[in-house]
Design a protein that fits this description.
This protein has about 100 residues and is mostly helical. The chain has one domain: Helix Hairpins (Orthogonal Bundle), CATH 1.10.287. It contains three helices and no strands. The model has no long low-confidence stretch (mean pLDDT about 80).
C-alpha cells in the first residue's frame, strides 16, 4: 500500500533535484527545468495531502493553480530567455552582466 510517506519522499527527491539543477547549472533553460521540478514537487504534496484528507483546501484545486502558475511562469521565462539570447547570442547566464538597462 502506497502511503503518504511515499509521496512525501518522492516530493522531497524532486525538490532536491530541482535545487541541485538551479545551483549547479549556468544554462538558462536548465534553470527553468529546475524551477519546474520544484513546482511539481509542491503539486505532488498538494495532491498527496488531499488524497489522505489533510489540509483545508482541495488538493486537486491547489494542483490546478500550480499547473496554471507553472504554465504562466514557463511562458514568461521563455520570452525573457529568448530576448536574452537575441541580445547576447548565448543562454549562459554568466554573460548577463553585459546587458545594460
Amino acid at each position: 500500500m502506497i502511503g503518504l510517506t511515499h509521496y512525501l519522499v518522492l516530493s522531497a527527491i524532486l525538490m532536491v533535484l530541482g535545487l541541485a539543477i538551479i545551483i549547479s547549472k549556468r544554462n538558462a533553460i536548465a534553470i527553468l527545468i529546475g524551477v519546474e521540478f520544484i513546482l511539481n514537487a509542491a503539486n505532488l504534496n498538494f495532491i498527496a495531502f488531499s488524497r489522505h484528507g489533510i489540509g483545508g483546501i482541495s488538493g486537486q484545486t491547489a494542483g490546478i493553480f500550480v499547473i496554471v502558475l507553472a504554465a504562466a511562469e514557463a511562458a514568461v521565462a521563455l520570452a525573457i530567455f529568448l530576448n536574452f539570447y537575441h541580445q547576447i547570442s548565448s543562454i549562459d547566464i554568466d554573460r548577463g552582466n553585459q546587458l545594460k538597462g
